[in-house]
Amino acid sequence: MPTDIKEISLITVIGSLLVVLMVLFILTVLFIYQRKQHRQEQAFQRMKTRFEKELLKSQLEIQESTFKIISQELHDNIGQMLTVVKMSLSFLKLPPTDTEGLNLLQNTKQVLSKAINDMSQLTKSLHSERIIQLGLVDSIRYELDVLKKNKLFGVHYRIEDDGYELDSKTTIFLFRMFQEIINNVIKHAQATDLFVTLDLLTDEHFLMKIEDNGKGIEGVDGWVDKQSLSGKSGIGLRSIIDRALLIGAKIEIHSRAQEGTSVTIKLPLKGQMLKYA
User: Fold this and answer.
1) The whole model's pTM is what?
2) Spacing of C-alpha 166 from chain mean position
3) Please, are residues 172 and 132 in contact by the beta-carbon 8 Å criterion?
4) Domains of the chain
5) Gap between the Cα atoms of 54 and 60, Å rounded
6) What are the tens digits of pLDDT across the range 63-110?
7) Using CA atoms, how far apart are residues 265 and 247, in angstroms rounded to an integer?
8) Does the CA dihedral 74-79-85-89 come out positive or negative?
9) Cβ contacts of residue 92 below 8 Å, gap of 6+?
């Protein structure tokens, strides 16, 4: 009888061990499977992110190429045509007694001069090679001076430590981001004042901050991320966030209703072609 009890106990212990081993085996298989699945998901996410970056990069390259073509066409064709029309009007002679005709001619010349000037400014803003040649700071300063002349709103800017140059790709990306932000302010903000800061921070970060005192982003009250953006103004801001990602910049957007919006872009300069005047 005691022998039977020992055998039963031994069988019970062995059975229990087998069950434990089986459970451990199943748990190990599940762990390995989940880990493998997690790695696959991470790899897929990396591939998706890399694909999205490459796709965005290609879209932006096509956009820059299109801007360049449009700029050249505007300058070579439409700009020249407007200049010829203005010159032709200069040769037009009206009798001194035709006051109405003289006033109309003068007004037409003024409108043409403004159109030629606006065309020139537009071609300069579109042409990426000119932006690279001028550099980021001078290109932004030029755009701000144009805004000042147009008197759409008060323009205030502070540019510190402007004795540096960024590489051409970063220059174009930051300038297009600046243009997109300004475009949003003009179209949507209903602002009376615009504030722009460009600075080289002590921790080797380039800072670009653009603020307005407009009505804020619709449906947003506080910090803004890509998911919270919607509507027409959201398209432009999502594009800015995507561009920032491509050059490794950190972007912060804050907006409050009837108080305005601020966009802060911080770019680490490690690896950039940084030069001092």
Assistant:
1) 0.64
2) 16
3) yes
4) 152-277 (3.30.565.10)
5) 10
6) 666 666 676 666 556 666 777 677 777 767 777 777 777 787 777 777
7) 11
8) positive
9) 105
